[in-house]
Amino acid sequence: MTRPLRAICVAAARPNFMKVKPVLDALEAREVETILVHTGQHYDAAMSDVFFDELGLRAPDRHLGTGSGTHAEQTARVMLAFEPLVAELEPDWVVVAGDVNSTLACSLVAAKSPARLAHVEAGLRSRDWTMPEEINRVVTDRISDLLLAPSPDGVENLVTEGTPSDRIELVGNVMIDTLLANRERALARRAAAAHGLTPGGYGLVTLHRPANVDSDAVLSGLLDALGRIASELPLVLPAHPRARANIERLGCPARLTLIDPAGYLDFISLESEARIVLTDSGGVQEETTALGVPCLTLRENTERPITIEEGTNRLVGLDPEVIVAASRQVLAEPPGPRCPALWDGNAGERIASAIISRR
Question: Considering the entire predicted model, what is its pTM?
Answer without folding.
Answer: 0.92
